[in-house]
Write a structure and sequence with these properties.
Layout lengths: L1 H16 L4 E4 L2 E3 L7 E3 L7 H31 L15 H12 L18
Antiparallel strand pairs: 1-2, 1-3
Length: 123
């Protein structure tokens, strides 16, 4: 993050040193003149002291952001784990109990469901 900040400061400094003519060509901008283009003044009106003050403010902001990120990470590390709320789950042993009852009654349940038509009633 600090290298990004340094890169931005250096890029800003080099832009001020190498100010070029910028042309507005309709809704786009270009460094080369274009038909019906309008030249724009894009120089940096800030003084050196203003630029230095802005760099100090940016550095202080970055330090505060780093401190806040560290505090957030510490807080997340200490936070309790999430708990799922809802209907309680049936114990895993419940299906086995149904199978045991079926074996005791002597009825063997088919492996797959099979539909059976009811017997016709006698009149």
């Amino acid at each position: 993050m600090k290298t990004k900040f340094i890169a931005i400061i250096l890029a800003t400094a080099t832009l001020a040193a190498h100010a070029q003519q910028v042309w507005r060509c309709g809704s786009s901008y270009s460094q080369a003149p274009c038909p019906d283009g309008v030249p724009l003044a894009v120089s940096d009106p800030r003084t050196a002291s203003d630029a230095a003050k802005a760099a100090q403010v940016a550095k202080a902001d970055q330090q505060r952001a780093d401190a806040m990120e560290k505090a957030r990470l510490d807080q997340e590390k200490k936070a309790p784990k999430a708990q799922v709320m809802g209907a309680p789950q049936a114990p895993a042993s419940a299906p086995q109990a149904d199978k045991k009852k079926a074996k005791k009654s002597g009825k063997k349940e088919p492996e797959h469901f099979t539909a059976v038509a009811p017997k016709a009633a006698k009149n």
